[in-house]
């Protein structure tokens, strides 16, 4: 079994590029797969499978998300105690344990934190699958 968060990221800047990548990889562009990709490209915020399903078969959405993640087109992230969220964009995240707020961060903004973790612990940190968790300014001030 491949761990999808270790699969190299495929670059598809828009829906048509993503559909073409599917065809190049020998995968069918089924109606349900197309709907999932359309939803991800229409609103690029990380979203749950249920939000992406929008009244359609959630099991089919999960199967398609798994396939798209194994391919490298989609990533999922766990932000706090809620369900996994799926996105086509490569971000890293910070999440508030108090209020549940989260922020998508351009990866280079966390390079200094990654370097400090590497120096102290010898690990090459990533915050794409699990975020940096703490308290936002508001929750910290009111705790």
Automatic annotation (TrEMBL):
It comes from the Bacteria. Binds 1 zinc ion per subunit. Gene3D superfamilies: 3.30.1490.190, Winged helix-like DNA-binding domain superfamily/Winged helix DNA-binding domain. Pfam families: FUR. One of its GO terms (molecular function) is zinc ion binding. One of its GO terms (biological process) is regulation of secondary metabolite biosynthetic process. Transmembrane segments: none annotated. The keyword DNA damage does not apply. Keywords: DNA-binding, Metal-binding, Repressor, Transcription, Transcription regulation, Zinc. Its cofactor is Zn(2+). The keyword Transcription applies. Zn(2+) binds at residues 96, 99, 136, 139. Belongs to the Fur family. This is Fur family nickel uptake regulator. It comes from Solirubrobacter pauli. The lineage of its organism: Bacteria, Bacillati, Actinomycetota, Thermoleophilia, Solirubrobacterales.
